[in-house]
Each structure stands twice: as C-alpha cells, then as structure tokens.
Amino acid sequence: MVMAATGLFLCVFLIEHLYSNLYLFAGDGGETFNEISHDMVHSIFIRVTEIVLFVAIVLHVIQAVYLTRQNAQARPVKYAVIKVNETSNWFSRNMGITGSVIFFFIVVHLWNFFVPYRITGHVGAESGETLAQEVAEALGNGYYASLYLISVMFLAFHLNHGFQSAFHTLGLNNKTYAKVWKIAGSIFAFGIVGVGFGIFPIFFYLSEITNGDILNNGIFFWLK
Fold it and tell me: What is the 3-state secondary structure (H, E, C) of 57-118?
C-alpha cells in the first residue's frame, strides 16, 4: 500500500514537472521557465509539497528494499525451473534494478539543480546565467544528456509495470479494468513520461552541436 500510494504521488509530480519544463521550448529565452521556478521558490504550497515529495521518495525506496528482502527470505531456495518469460518480462522482474538507476539519476539531478538553486543559491553566482540557461547547458553536454535519456528510458519501463501494479495493490483493478489500466499505464509511461522527458536531452544536445539557440528560437530552432 505504501509503495502504491507513494508511487502514484510521484507520478503526479512527474506530470507537474514535465509541464513546467515544457516552457523551456517557449522561445522566450527561458523567461517563463525562470518565472515559474522563481514563483515555486516563494510558494508555501510548493515548499510543503517538496517536503512531502522527498518523504515519498524515501519511503518508496525504503519500502522497495524491505519488500525485496522479505520476498527473498520467503523463498530462500530458488525454483529448479522458472519459466518467467511465460508470465512476466525482464522489467517487471527487475523493478529494483530500474529503480536503482532512477534513484541514482534523481540524486545527480538534485545535486546539479535543486541544491544550487533552492538551497545554496549559487545558480548564476559565477557565470551570471539564469536557471534556464544552466539547464540548457547541462542538457547540451553529451554525457549528461546520455545519462538523462537512459534514466528516462528506465523510468518509462519502471512506470509501465508500476502504474498498473499500484492500482492492483489498492484494490482498483479487476478483470473488467485490468486491460484499461494496462493500456493507460503504457500510455503514461511511454507516451507521456518517456517521450515527454526524452525530448529534452535530444533537442538540447542537437541544439548544442548545431550551434542552435533553443531557448530563444524554440523547439524548431533549426529552422531559424
């Protein structure tokens, strides 16, 4: 229940995060994105939500480790023959691995942006760049863009199983709605989260190597 509830809460956060990030493609030099980020810093509601978000992440990770150990102890001796391919795929059997990759990226991402912007206030302190410019610079770096894209791919596969599994755990899944949640989960995981977040490292890296200016020219920077 804890895994399901915290997982679905994090899904809601992903939608909000994607919405605000899309303003990086507004073509206004990142002004709207910077304004939204600034407003969030001074919003009591957002600050409280951030605390809840961090608690949800920690609970989700702790519960995942606990359940993994509990399952292992319940069956210390492995089956002689396991026909896993008949009932599950690799990603549904290795949620811990995909979750670990995602958690590693979250730590790196928070260290690069949240800590200097929300805690230390060092964003633009030396370079004079805005948050949008620093995000664009980071995503224009091949190494960071690759890590971002790989993490998004793992996140999509993680959500594809976790989304429908959460509704099943909460008792909102049955034979009638099973296919609906499965389709909805795939659309959310791959169509919204996967594609939505995946376009950021791709477009910003392409903008960097082609000497484009995606912040000022928008997502169709190559046409200007």
Answer: HHHHHHHHHHHHHHHHHHCCCCCCCCCHHHCCCHHHHCHHHHHHHHHHHHHHHHHHHHHHHH
